[in-house]
Amino acid sequence: MNSEKNNQLPVENPDNEHRPDDDKAGGLFWFLKGKPFKFSKILIVLVFILVLTSVFIPILVAVLWSFVDPSVPWSYPDIFPKSFSLYHWQHVLKYGEVMRAITTSFIAAPITTAVCIVLALPTSYVLGRKKFRGKGLAKLIVLLPIIMPGIVVAMSLGRLLNNLHLSQTFIGLIIAHTLVGIPYMIRTVTTTFEAIPQEVIDAAYDLGASHFDVVKEIYIPLVLPGIFAGGVFTFIYSLEEFILTFIVATPTYRTIPTLLYSYLGYFFQRTNASVVSIILVVPGIVILMVAERFLKKEYLSSGFGKI
Amino acid sequence: MARLTINNLVKRFGDFTAIDNLSLDIADGEFITLLGPSGCGKTTTLRSIAGFIEPDEGDILFDQKRVNDIPPNKRSTAMVFQSYALFPHMTVKKNIAFGLKMKKVNKTEAEKRISEAIELVGLTGLEGRFPKELSGGQQQRVAVARALVMQPDILLFDEPLSNLDAKLREKMRVEIRELQRKLKITAIYVTHDQAEALVISDRVVIMNKGVIQQIGKPTDVYNRPNSAFVADFIGTANFIDGTVKEKLEADTWLLETEIGNIKTMTEYQLALGDQVLLSVRPEDLLMEKGSENTFQGVITTQTYMGNFVDYHVEVAGKSLRIQSNGKQLFEEGDSVQVHFRPEDCTIVEMKDVNQHETAHQ
């Protein structure tokens, strides 16, 4: 934003040839010196192309594959399939294992989210409102599960759950998802706790509220946007989690991603894989879009006075 | 609607003593201002009264009942915060209703008090708005209504006007004063703005470094400051060093000072040879010839301010600040007569008691 503004200045003042900002930009991108405006445009186009090729086109291709008519093959040099049908969707949804995986995923995700909320609230309250020695370290430790490489967490957790006789169980699956999902929740909820001015809390006590009242009437409503944002992260994380599920719960419990892996691996079926991946991706996109709208509205209505 | 007594209050934060043995007695229905620079302990005192801060020593009594161990939510105080501290997720009405809901006041009674409070502060029609949809002045009214609706024994204000612009601030302080008079609630008001303190209070408590410097009516603390700090903090002051030369009448003395002989009136008992510090307000210095305390000076700077003119006049090598209405305008370099009445110069400090004892021998 800022660099864009700076870069536009020379265009607005063509007479003013030398500006200190030019030197700054020109230092790193010396070859673009004198044409900074064009440079920012190039960047935008590059990012756009990147998103298009890495996200949008694969999804589009998956959508197309999922609707291919099995009786009319889609092959080179056709850019689009010649004929569409719902055959693969019906076929996949008829499979018992697909429905089971979808059910498992959509039961595990809300439970993981709920467990994360319950566990994160007290932690976030302390991290966000209290002063204590080693708070910085505590905040770092909370983030460790997402700092550590997934495979490292998965291997050690798999071993641990195995010793506890919890591998290949649904509880083990929830524990695994919660462990890596909870840092996101703690992070966002802590931030919302931190954002509540102490004077607002003092005012509530001053007006006769008990500790319970303050939690119920002030803290909970004010951190709700944070819980919601964190919930979106943990829900989508749980839906799309692969490595932990694969090591801890497969083959007893299959989620959509582990099922997708088997479609892409042992029994490669592009059409089935396409259907399953859409089932996996679409809820995430919908949740994100709804969340975006809800969060905007919620944050707007919770401006903290003039602060 | 309570008398507030503070006895020997002490509060330390680590090595820093925020309140140093403070005692204060505030009458029922009185409007008191705690005035002082930042870090003087005024806010700490207010928060101790509300119960947010536990004092290290001393007692706080409401109507002679000790409240030290009563938590803030059980004390009959209501506070208006500097940031207003409105609940952002509640409408104006819910904000105002919050305290009554907490105290479980019955519905009809609560409704009645809420609508009275809303009308009192002039927020009728805005009940359904959220705080962020209100202007600063309106938010401030909500904060006041939210405190008033509780019908507290003691109303506490923590620099409530510091976030408003100058015009609105002047308007609101008169409104707060009128409301308090009408409702006859004991009020304690913290500010660092001396003009606000003078306008709003029955009595002003001037604090510095955790210690009360002077308590008095606005006219007293302005006209009869008891220390150089008070004279300087409230308004502006010219300080002149002098020595007692002669007793003229029971309360009138002649001083020999750095700018010449000055006749002053004081209730202090002075002795010949006492060294004193005099304070004269810039607006009490008149640029005309008087029968006494008249000095010759030259104007070094002149600043036109519209409603008054600010001069610096050099008298016998000392620069004096003079504020006069702009009726007669002098220019820089003009030679002028400077005059002030004996009752307009105040002794704010007496120094060197030893020397006065030797002078007697």
From TrEMBL, chain A:
InterPro entries: MetI-like (IPR000515), MetI-like_sf (IPR035906). One of its GO terms (biological process) is transmembrane transport. Its main location: membrane. Keywords: Cell inner membrane, Cell membrane, Membrane, Transmembrane, Transmembrane helix, Transport. SUPFAM superfamilies: MetI-like (SSF161098). Belongs to the binding-protein-dependent transport system permease family. It is found in: Cell inner membrane; Cell membrane. PANTHER family: INNER MEMBRANE ABC TRANSPORTER PERMEASE PROTEIN YDCV. Residues 102-291 form the ABC transmembrane type-1 domain. It comes from Anoxynatronum buryatiense. Residues 1-10 have a biased composition (Polar residues). It is a multi-pass membrane protein. Residues 1-20 are annotated as: Disordered. The chain crosses the membrane at residues 42-68, 106-128, 140-161, 167-186, 218-237, 243-264, 271-291. It comes from the Bacteria. Gene3D superfamilies: MetI-like (1.10.3720.10). Pfam families: BPD_transp_1 (PF00528). This is Spermidine/putrescine transport system permease protein. GO terms for cellular component: plasma membrane.
From TrEMBL, chain B:
InterPro entries: AAA+_ATPase (IPR003593), ABC_SmlMolc_Importer (IPR050093), ABC_transporter-like_ATP-bd (IPR003439), ABC_transporter-like_CS (IPR017871), Mo/tungstate-bd_C_term_dom (IPR008995), NA-bd_OB-fold (IPR012340), P-loop_NTPase (IPR027417), Transp-assoc_OB_typ2 (IPR013611). Transmembrane segments: none annotated. Pfam families: ABC_tran (PF00005), TOBE_2 (PF08402). It comes from the Bacteria. Residues 4-234 form the ABC transporter domain. Keywords: ATP-binding, Nucleotide-binding, Transport. One of its GO terms (molecular function) is ABC-type transporter activity. GO terms for cellular component: ATP-binding cassette (ABC) transporter complex. SMART domains: AAA (SM00382). This is Iron(III) transport system ATP-binding protein. It comes from Anoxynatronum buryatiense.
